[in-house]
């Protein structure tokens, strides 16, 4: 598609449709990014419409919802709960194009931004293309992450992945631009499907929302924030905590978030005799979440499927050293020996060693890691993210 950039002087507000298979009240990286991006754009004067499944099949309609201190127009389509998952809802795929036609006719957007190529984004992309409406697509998904919830036997996994990525490729090729949160994630996408020119754009974070605690103290509190799902490998952190407990008698582990693996993790905690050291807080509100970062001494993430990891950025903005798996996009945020350490994925001994280094570091060394996290988050300022997406929406060239 040939795009004529809008003259800089005209800078009129845009009408933007966000296609989101997951959105508030869901708690995951894709949902949180869509919330922050949509609210940030609304704060700049744009008319943002979010299209997402309803909570409860009959609770559909068009609502004004207060998200991140902004009022957004949210089109809640009839959502069906996916039983194998603890919160996932979806729209019947064969209705997606019908809803897309109706919403695009009502809203008449300047651009569609698809946050997922699965159902809603897929439908809106196809109808927008038919009508000559430009589409920007962001990939937050690793197809492998949804295998556990397909109910397919394992011998069909490879077939499923091949079909899923083939459909993603068709959808992405209908878009003006395809983005993903990091260069590593962009390289992964380009290597997985026949697509080039994927643009890495950080999900972004407003560091003003987080208050680092630089008070000298004894360090003992490990924190994880996120969904309790298999790809997060929280059991690896639990085993590392158990290894460290004899030599670090005050060590504790706070787990913030909900998910389908909670019962399994409770069993791990019991087997490892960690009942007095591990606290599962479940889902919490934003104020409690920020307070959790402030109380912690180190953030630990063993996930092997992060395309960026917003929670890691939140931890860094809170001035926490981070210990994370050396996998996918985490090395983009965690610089080994600077703001924390990377460990070999799944290696409990290596993780325990890296946590030990942080928790037993002299205060001067700990302060240095804190500052490195705060310095590292500067490149992920949400205002930069908003600037970049505005340029993509308007068809303007990006800085190289």
From TrEMBL:
GO biological process: carbohydrate derivative biosynthetic process
Keyword Glycosyltransferase: yes
SUPFAM superfamilies: UDP-Glycosyltransferase/glycogen phosphorylase
Assigned keywords, A-Z: Glycosyltransferase, Transferase
Domain Glycosyltransferase subfamily 4-like N-terminal: 27-206
Annotated Glycosyl transferase family domain residues: 218-372
Molecular function GO terms recorded: glycosyltransferase activity
One Pfam match: Glyco_transf_4
The keyword Nucleotide-binding is annotated on this UniProt entry: no
Protein name in UniProt: D-inositol 3-phosphate glycosyltransferase
């Amino acid at each position: 598609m040939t795009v004529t950039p809008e003259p800089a002087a005209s800078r009129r507000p845009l009408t933007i449709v966000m296609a989101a298979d997951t959105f508030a009240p869901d708690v995951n990286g894709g949902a949180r990014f869509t919330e922050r991006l949509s609210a940030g754009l609304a704060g700049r004067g744009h008319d943002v419409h979010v299209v997402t499944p309803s909570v409860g099949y009959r609770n559909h309609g068009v609502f004004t919802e207060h998200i991140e201190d902004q009022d957004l127009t949210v089109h809640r389509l009839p959502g069906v709960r996916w039983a194998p998952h603890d919160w996932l809802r979806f729209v019947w795929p064969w209705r997606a194009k019908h809803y897309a036609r109706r919403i695009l006719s009502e809203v008449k957007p300047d651009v569609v931004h698809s946050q997922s190529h699965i159902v809603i984004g897929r439908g809106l992309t196809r109808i927008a293309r038919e009508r000559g409406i430009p589409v920007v697509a962001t990939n937050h998904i690793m197809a492998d992450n949804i295998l556990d919830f397909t109910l397919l036997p394992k011998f069909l996994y490879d077939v499923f992945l091949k079909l899923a990525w083939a459909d993603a490729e068709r959808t992405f090729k209908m878009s003006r631009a395809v983005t993903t949160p990091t260069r590593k994630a962009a390289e992964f996408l380009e290597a997985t499907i026949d697509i080039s020119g994927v643009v890495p754009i950080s999900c972004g974070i407003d560091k003003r929302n987080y208050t680092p605690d630089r008070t000298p103290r004894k360090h003992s509190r490990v924190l994880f924030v996120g969904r309790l799902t298999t790809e997060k490998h929280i059991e690896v952190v639990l085993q590392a905590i158990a290894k460290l407990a004899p030599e670090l008698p005050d060590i504790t582990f706070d787990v913030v978030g909900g998910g389908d693996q909670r019962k399994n993790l409770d069993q791990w905690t019991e087997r490892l005799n960690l009942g007095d050291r591990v606290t599962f807080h479940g889902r919490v509100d934003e104020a409690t979440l920020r307070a959790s970062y402030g109380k912690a001494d180190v953030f630990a993430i063993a996930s092997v499927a992060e395309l960026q990891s917003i929670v890691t950025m939140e931890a860094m903005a809170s001035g926490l050293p981070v210990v994370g798996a050396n996998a996918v996009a985490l090395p983009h945020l965690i610089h080994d020996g600077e703001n924390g350490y990377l460990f070999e994925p799944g290696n409990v001994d290596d993780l325990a060693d890296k946590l030990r280094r942080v928790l037993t570091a002299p205060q001067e060394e700990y302060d240095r890691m804190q500052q490195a996290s705060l310095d590292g988050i500067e490149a992920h300022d949400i205002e930069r993210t908003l600037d970049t997406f505005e340029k993509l929406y308007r068809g303007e060239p990006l800085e190289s």
